Amino acid sequence: MDILESLNIKEESDDRIPGVMPGIVTNNQDPENLYRVKVKFPWLSEDNETDWIRVATLMAGPERGSFFLPEVGDEVLVAFEYGDINAPYVIGVLWNRKQKPPETNSDGKNNIRKIRSRSGHEIIFNDDDTSKKEKLEIKTKAGHRISLDDSSGGEKIEIIDKTGQNKIVIDSVQNSITIEAGMQLKIKAQAIEIEGITSLSLKSNAMLTIQGLPVKIN
Description:
Elements: H1 3-7, E1 20-27, E2 36-40, E3 53-55, E4 60-61, E5 64-65, E6 75-80, E7 88-94, E8 112-116, E9 122-126, E10 135-139, E11 145-149, E12 156-160, E13 167-171, E14 176-180
Parallel strand pairs: 3-7
Antiparallel strand pairs: 1-2, 1-6, 2-3, 4-5, 6-7, 8-9, 9-10, 10-11, 11-12, 12-13, 13-14
């Protein structure tokens, strides 16, 4: 039985429901790809499920917008257009005691904003400007990381792989760029030019090979 049929018990007198209702997502594979889900309400029987419901999002337009479709099993908040039970919308997603947030505010300072995917990929906004932690970070589940550090005296950009041995550091304080590789660093292009304004050093702790057709040293 369709959930709307179950709710429409007062159709002859009043088929409007004020306020909102919590529900659980049962299906998010919309056959028309219109960013819709199906929902059931826990206080009704398992057989009751809505038709496809549109989901409100941060931004929406032709081939643009934010795409954060609720997962099956997520708790959502459902509202009805002008209270009409035949026109429901999912207007938000809720955490609960079984499905807890990926971050806390245990210190009461509310410095962290975070987006975390099902796999564990994260985008973290840290607004803590008192402990020199003010930064934006992108992390993958495996541990690859991009960090944009705005902390006073420590401004820099870092790209680091999961091993921590391969990295690029752009240091705004030292006005320097450092590239490190755990084993091998390769640079390849049609033409490469290296210029030192005041000096240029090439150093190897083992063999140093210069090869070309021809080799010109001026």
